[in-house]
Amino acid sequence: LNDILTSIPSSFKRAWAGVLNPRHFLGVRLWVSVIARFRKRHRGGLETLFVEILKLCHAAGLVRLGVVALDGTKVKANASLAANRTSKSLEAEAEAIDSAEDEMFGESRGDELPAELREPSGRLSRLRSCHERLLREADEQRAKQQQKIDARAAEETAECEYLIATTKDWKPRKAMRDAPPPRGRIPKDMSARDRMERKLLTQRGRELYRLRGQTVEPVFGQMKETQGADCFMMRGEQETKGEWSLNCSAHNIKKLHSESVRRGRKGGKWLSN
Questions:
Q1: Is-above-0.85 flag for pTM?
Q2: Contacts of 269 (CB under 8 A, 6+ apart)
Q3: Distance CA 5, CA 42 (A)
Q4: C-alpha closest to that of 109 among 98, 120, 93
Q5: Distance between first and last Cα of the chain
Q6: How far apart are CA 93 and CA 98, in angstroms?
Q7: Is 105:249 a contact under the CB 8 Å cutoff?
Q8: Distances in whole angstroms, Cα of residue 51 to Cα of each of 21, 151, 246, 247
Q9: Residue 229 CB burial class (10 angstroms; 0-12, 13-18, ≥19)
Q10: What is the tens place of the pLDDT at every residue in 144-198?
C-alpha cells in the first residue's frame, strides 16, 4: 500500500489535496471492505433508514394505500469457505471413518440392516409407521395454514379484505387458475379455506390477485437481477435482516431518484428533500 501511495506524483497529490484521498484509487477492494464494515456497524439503524426513506417516498406521492400484496423470494446464502473439502482432507476423513468402523463392527461389514428390518414383517411395519408419520405432518401443515386463514379472516373488515393463496405448489395453483369462476351463492357449510379458494376463483378475486405481477413481484426481479441482491454477503439472521433492509432502502432510493429526474425533465420541481 505504501509503495503504491509513494508512486503517485506529488503534483497529482497537490492537485487533489482535500478533494479525494489517494486510497480511493486503489481499486474496488478497499471500497468493498468499507461497505462491509458499514453494514456491520450500522445494522440496527438500517431498518430505521428503510422507514425514513418510505416517508420520503410518501411525501413525494409515490406511495398509495390500496391493494397491498405480500410475497417472498429465495436469496442465496453466504456459504462458509471452511466447509469446502480438498481431496487430501477427504482421504484423511475417509481413513479415519474406516478405522472407527473397523473398531466398532469388527469382522462385520457395517452395512447390515437393523434387527427390526431384517424380516419382511418388520420392514412392512416400518413402512406403515413412516406413512402414518407423513400423513400426520401433512395434516399438521394443513392445520397451520387453516389457522392462518382463520386468524386473518377474523381481522378482515369491510375496509380490509384478504386474498390468501391456499396452496404453495404451482400445479394446484395453475389448476385453480384454469378452473371456471364459481357461480351461485356461497354454501354455508364451507370452511374458511374453501371459502378463500372460492374467492380466489371469482372474477374479482382473480383480477385483484393478478395485481401481484404489477406490484410486489417485479420488485424482487429488479432487486435480484438489476441490483444484484440475489445473494447475502453477511452471515447470521440479524446480519442478513440488516443487509436486506439496506437492499430495500437502496431500491426505494432509486425509485425516488428516478421520479425526481422525471419531474425535472418535465419542467417541474426536483425532489430536494
A1: no
A2: 263
A3: 30
A4: 98
A5: 39
A6: 9
A7: no
A8: 33, 27, 11, 13
A9: buried
A10: 878 877 777 676 655 667 777 777 666 666 766 777 888 778 888 888 778 888 8
